[in-house]
Structure formats: C-alpha cells, structure tokens
Amino acid sequence: MKFGGTSVEGATAFQNAARIVSERQGLRPVVVVSAMAGFTDALLNSVREALNGDASSAASTLDKHFDRHLRVIDALLDNETARMRDLIDESRVEIAELLKTMTLEVGQGQSQRKRFADAVASFGERLSAAMLAAVLVENKVSSTDVDARLCIITDEEFGCAAPLIDETFSRSKTHLQPLLESGCVPVLGGFIGSTLSGETTTLGRGGSDYSAAIIGAALAAEEIQIWTDVPGVLTADPRVAPKARTVPKLSFEEAAELAYFGAKVLHPKTLQPAVERNIPVRICNSRAQESGSTLVVAETEKSPQTVKAIAHKTGVTTVQVTSARMLGAYGFLRALFEVFDEHRTAVDVVTTSEVSVSLSLDDTSDLPAIVAELEKLGSVNVEEKRAILCIVGEGLRSTPGIAARIFSTISDINVSLISQGASRINLTFAVEEARAREAVMRLHREFFENSDEEASKYLATGIETTV
Ligand code: ADP
Ligand code: ASP
Ligand code: MG
To answer: Closest Cα to residue 188, out of 73, 21, 69?
Structure first.
C-alpha cells in the first residue's frame, strides 16, 4: 500500500492513512509512503539555494516544513512524541551539515551535486515513514519503520537510480518477511534507495509508486495499491478536463502508455515490476475510498467506449532528420540511434518515412551536441515547446474510423509525429505545447462528455473531480 504526498500532507491525512492501513491489517500489508506534500520540492530547493550562496540561510528555508512535521507529531502522537521530535531535530541538523559540506567541497560538479541532492531529498520519505509507523502504533497497529535503503539497492545514477533487481528482491525479503510473519506492518519511505556501497540514491521524481511496485514484486504481493488524491486513473488529467472520470479497468499495457505519456498518477516505471510478476495494481482515492478506483491487470478489456483515456505530456522537443541517403540503404537508423545512445538520451516516439526520421525527446540537456552529430547524417530540424498526446484503448485496434474522429475533432490544430504502437492500443502524436490543453479538452468532450448510454454504463458513476 503506497500513500503519496497528499495522502500524508498533514495530521488529518496521516490519521486517515493509518485508518486505511489498520482496516486492512488482515491482508498483511507493507506500507510505502512519500514525503509530506511539497517537502521534496523544498528539500531540493534548499540544495539549489545553498549552491547559489549561503548554506545556513538555505537550511532555514526548511523551517516551516519541519514545523509541519512537528504539528503532525503533536496532534497524533502521545507516547512517541519525544522520540519523533528528536528525530526531526536530528534531521534538521544533519541536513544543515550536508548543505554546508556541499558548498565547501563540491563547487559546481554535476555528479557530486546530485549525490548531495539525493542525500538531502531522502529525508522527506525517511521522516514520513517514521511518523506513519508511529501513528499506526498509536492506533494499536503493530508497526515499525524500515529504512528503504536497506531494501532497495540501486546503481549509482544519482537522481534517477535504477534498482539492482536480484539484490533488491533478496534484501527486501530478508528485511520484510520476518516482520510480516510476526504480524507487524513495515513502513518504508518510497523514492529512496542506496548503492551497494551504502550511498543514498533516489529513483527520480514521483518514484514512490515505483518503490511500492518493486517491493510488491519482491514479496510476490497479491496486489499493489497506490493510494492518492484522485479516484484512480481518470479519462484525462483532471487539471485540464475537470469532468474527467474514473476508468475502472485498464490493461498493464494501456496503463503503461498513459503513465509514460503524462498521467502523473502513476510513475512511468510502476508497471514494470507488476507486469513481470503479474501482480494487479489498484489505484485508490485515500480521501474518499468509495469514490472509485482503477484496477490494472494483465487481461485486456474492451470498453464500449473505444477510447479509454487521454494522456498528455508537455515540455517535449521533436527532432527531424532528413536525408536522401536513407533511400533503400541499411545501417542508417542504427547510426542515427547510436547518436542518442552515446549521449544517454531516451527517445520517446519515432516515426519514419523513406527519407526522414522524426522523434521526440524529453531530455534536451545534450541536444546541441546531438544535433551536431546528426547533421553528419542529414539535415536536422528541431522543434521545441511541443506536447505529446496519447490516446489509449484496447478498442482502437478494431474500430474503423477512430483516427478520423480524433483528427477531425482537432482539425485546426497542427499535428505531427503520428504514431500507432505495434499493439495498436494507442495513438500518439505531437502538437504545439500552447495548444495541448485545448486539444485534450476538445478530445475529452468528444469522447467522454457527449455521453451516450453505453459510455455512462461503462464509466464509474458520474464522479466529477474538483482538482
Ligand atoms: P501522489 O502524491 O499521490 O503520488 P501525484 O500528484 O503524483 O500523487 O499524482 C496524482 C495526480 O495526477 C492527480 O492529482 C492528477 O492531478 C494527476 N493526473 C494527471 N493525469 C491523470 C489521470 N489521467 N488520472 C488521474 N490523475 C491524473
Ligand atoms: N517525494 C518524491 C517526489 O516528490 C517521490 C514521490 O512522491 O513519489 O518526487
Ligand atoms: Mg506521484
């Protein structure tokens, strides 16, 4: 059971999370928890501020966040108050020391900075885990916090580390199974891990979902539950389409596409461990359990609604390489992708014609060097400020005319890089970033708000989110 930042944003949320866990004690849960909402941002901000100037004033920007923790402790704890207050004070001192050491030792070296950033950011999840375990104990649930860094072992890619799966699985079992067998609920911080040599790492922003899935897979859990602030995966981002509604069931593949192309409710890597061990993933609303949830399972299910959900991702750059050399030649694509490989830059969507290749990127940190090398292969055109829209549904495979309906809905918006995955459950394309919201709104209206009877039968009963 993973609780995100808003599910532990304050005393009421902590108490609520503890109640949700205690009601499910019989299922022998392991709990994974995020930092209190906004705390990871604040911790990473303090690292940036320290690098720009004064470490002690950077540390003091965190005071109000420690106060938020103290308010939870005072509101909910009785026996554990002193121990937890001490833990907060120790963390405050340790973070201040880390920031100071960083400014003295590191200068601007990128890899060293990331090491310190991970060490500082880890306090968010570490404190939440200790506090939630204490709140559970206060609620008469046998519970203890377990340092996630003992369980999740990663490579040394600070800021975006990848778990070493065999090591992680065996250590997770060693640390967690005896607790489960003794009836204790282990609580771990998400997002964090450690290298084989014991240095703290993080799995990338939003990575607590991924932690939960890794731990779930390690223990062969019956289900991985993601408790968040919305009733499951919705038909679109509710901040763009306020009438978005819960999608009751998705296949792993559908959910993975949505997560990858911007449905923030699931970290893009969450489904990987679940798919490998065929563990269902359920996304639930910690604020209103009865308001709906999404179950993600291996089997596909066609909805009468053909399109199940729309995801979108902004901040994308597209690159087009055109070259007559491609005509009838082999080896060209290999040479092209080697450039991205060398610069460790992931490519998202790719389309090709006889003489050109178009692709999209999130990470443009090495783009000038990449373009310089691509120019040896052909003429290069870069378009920044793009967005990717991804329309998902098993039914896309077999419904004629769906592409026509999609593109005629947004016929005045310029579309590029149209791609349909091999499994044909998604249609993905790029638009200008400035028009992405409008495109999502219009498509949502077309596919979900002109509710015909079949649609309303399939979709959960009329929950309108207020996010
Ligand atoms: P947590 O802190 O619980 O991990 P996140 O903020 O990471 O929560 O993810 C939940 C948020 O994801 C929602 O509040 C919503 O704004 C956003 N979101 C974007 N797209 C979707 C979608 N298709 N379905 C549900 N939520 C979405
Ligand atoms: N606290 C981390 C973040 O804000 C991880 C998470 O919440 O999933 O990115
Ligand atoms: Mg999240």
So the answer is: 21
